[in-house]
Amino acid sequence: MTSYKELGLVNTKEMFAKAVKGGYAIPAFNFNTMEQMQAIVQAAVKTNSPVIMQVSKGARNYANGTILRYMAQGAVEYAKELGCKNPQIVLHLDHGDSFELCKDCIDNGFSSVMIDGSHLPYEENIALTKKVVEYAHAHDVTVEAELGVLAGVEDEVSAEHSTYTKPEEVVDFSTRTGCDSLAISIGTSHGAYKFKPEQCTRNAAGKLVPPPLAFDVLEAIEKQLPGFPIVLHGSSSVPQDEVDTINSNGGKLPDAVGIPEEQLRKASKSAVCKINIDSDSRLAMTAAVRKYFNEHPDHFDPRQYLKPARENMQKMYEHKIIEVLGSNDKL
Fold first, then answer.
1. Does residue 237 contact residue 316 with C-beta atoms inside 8 Å?
2. 253 located within any domain
3. Does some domain include residue 61?
4. SS3 125
5. CA-angle at 19, arms to 17 and 24, nearest 5°
6. How many CA atoms lie within 13 A of 85 on its CB side?
7. What CATH number is associated with residue 196?
8. 137 in a domain, yes or no?
9. How far apart are alpha carbons 40 and 82 in whole angstroms?
């Protein structure tokens, strides 16, 4: 068994407490590749921000759990090389779907895990979450749970319909499970197509404008659980400049739309202390690669096209940290 402390990682307990008190949110960026990891660390160090590096079940299957574990350890050492004396990096399992998966991650150095039982009946969600919490807390690992269902598709997480979190359930759920943070559903969604066109309006340029998040639900949850760490999943903004770059260089992403950044800024100032961003990274990487190949059709060295992809992701991460989440200079 490997303790996360051996890898130089931290859990989320202290950073969440500081974020709730300080009115900002910790960036939770998913990664699958070395270039994503490098960009995340470079952005976090440059902005002096704590960061959560998330690994989904799909990422573990793609890159191998052992490799990802040592990439996380490498991220800590890389941050120190870049000049950060005390990196605050969490290795987090995103959307764990079983006790066995969460246990394996805990045993292999993850400092935080999410158990997602939101698709289960309420009592079964509580039982599964509590089981994970008991094992995780015995190893000083923090646990994120989910109540309510997000729509959309990303990796192996899929739901056709969303169900808002019920504020009247959050106290009972958090008390009985002992979870450290709670992912809620207030209208965010997984993937690059977070809303159907019929759910949106169109602006003068013909771009889709999504419906607002249910801040009334968030406020009701905050009243029930004052000061408790809240998490937003499916919070990529799907930058239209990246979508346009993809589409103008051979891609086909019609009507891709995300969560407006001004709504995420508002959420960051509340008890929402962790905001998940995955699709924006994929879009930034894909846009840079497509543009590069269109401009250099004779090139074939991966280092040539992955370098601008890494740079574009770092630029996006820095923007999110400074302009949206407010976690810069919080180490």
1. no
2. yes
3. yes
4. helix
5. 160
6. 1
7. 3.20.20.70
8. yes
9. 12
* Beta strands, E only, the chain: 26-30, 51-56, 89-96, 112-115, 142-147, 151-154, 157-159, 181-184, 189-190, 201-202, 208-209, 230-232, 272-277
- Catalytic residue positions, numbered: 94
Location of structure tokens 């959560």: 52
Phi-psi region of 151 (alpha: psi -120 to 50; beta: other; left: phi over 0): beta
Nearest to 274 by CA among 92, 10, 33, 136: 92
Which H or E element spans position 62? helix 57-63
Residue 286 lies in a domain: yes
Domain count, the chain: 1
Range of the domain at 234: 4-325
Length of the chain measured in residues? 331
Task: Report the candidate in 130, 227, 219, 140 with the shortest Cα–Cα distance to residue 172.
Answer: 130
Report yes or no on whether pTM surpasses 0.85. yes
At residue 41, what is the residue type?
V
In DSSP terms, 52 is beta-bridged to: 28, 90
- Burial of 80 from C-beta contacts in 10 A (0-12 / 13-18 / 19+): middle
The amino acid at 127: A
Give burial (CB, 10 Å; 0-12/13-18/19+) of 223.
exposed
Taking alpha carbons only, the member of 126, 134, 132 closest to residue 113 is 132
Question: pLDDT tens digits, the chain, 331 residues: what are they?
Answer: 999 999 999 999 999 999 999 999 999 999 999 999 999 999 999 999 999 999 999 999 999 999 999 999 999 999 999 999 999 999 999 999 999 999 999 999 999 999 999 999 999 999 999 999 999 999 999 999 999 877 544 555 544 456 899 999 999 999 999 999 999 999 887 777 767 778 878 888 777 878 889 999 999 999 999 999 999 998 999 999 999 999 999 999 988 889 999 999 999 999 999 999 999 999 999 999 999 999 999 999 999 999 999 999 999 999 999 999 999 999 9
* Distance linking the first and last C-alpha atoms of the chain: 29
